[in-house]
Design a protein that fits this description.
This protein has 205 residues and is mostly helical. The chain has 13 helices and no strands.
Length: 205
């Protein structure tokens, strides 16, 4: 079955109490169902493939990738050369990033289970040290694989846009962002779900 990011009354009541505007938006939009995928290895590969291409292109390449390797694990990925992966419609660089990641996992240089025992900052540091993974990707993995409750990404354009719309700011700088991040904490991820929806014009509907 599908898994969704879990939240409920506790988070909602807290955010409403802390921020009237966000509270009104939450009432207007209702519960948000965002799919999560607990498989970190597969999610990292999916993110690498998806960089700088459209969702439609990602769906196509991902479909071919799944057909080729079957279950997406470090072992199955390493059965193929980077050139073969490139043939599926991704850049050679991405294919190399994926191979590099799979090798680290296979050699035990990177223990994905260990990530669950780390705090958010350590996870970000560990994942973003890999080739092809930046801070933003690591933050998305914290949310959509690990369901961490307090992630609000300054590197996410849609989050900043959602804030601008909600609070009528001409621009968002780091100081302003930090003010809201502190206000939403410890439920920044739920705030993120609503800010993404707002950026996607959920309040105009």
């Amino acid at each position: 079955g599908r898994m969704y990011f879990e939240y409920g009354d506790t988070e909602i009541e807290y955010l409403k109490r802390k921020d009237k505007k966000l509270g009104e938006a939450i009432d207007h939009i209702g519960h948000i169902y965002r799919e999560v995928d607990a498989d970190i290895f597969q999610s990292v590969v999916h993110h690498i493939i998806g960089q700088q291409i459209s969702n439609a292109a990602l769906a196509t390449v991902w479909g071919r990738f799944r057909n080729l390797v079957g279950e997406v694990t470090a072992d199955t990925v390493l059965k193929y050369q980077a050139e073969e992966l490139k043939g599926l419609g991704m850049s050679l660089r991405k294919a190399e990033y994926i191979q590099n990641f799979a090798q680290k996992v296979c050699l035990g240089e990177l223990d994905l289970e260990e990530l669950y025992r780390m705090d958010d900052q350590k996870v970000i540091k560990t994942l973003s040290s890999l080739r092809g993974i930046g801070v933003w990707t690591a933050e998305m993995l914290l949310i959509f694989c690990m369901q961490r409750p307090d992630v609000l990404s300054y590197g996410d354009g849609a989050i900043l846009k959602g804030m601008q719309i909600l609070y009528h700011h001409r621009k968002m700088d780091k100081n302003l962002f930090e003010k809201y991040r502190k206000r939403y904490s410890p439920y920044g991820t739920v705030a993120s779900l609503y800010l993404w929806a707002i950026a996607g014009q959920a309040l105009e509907k």
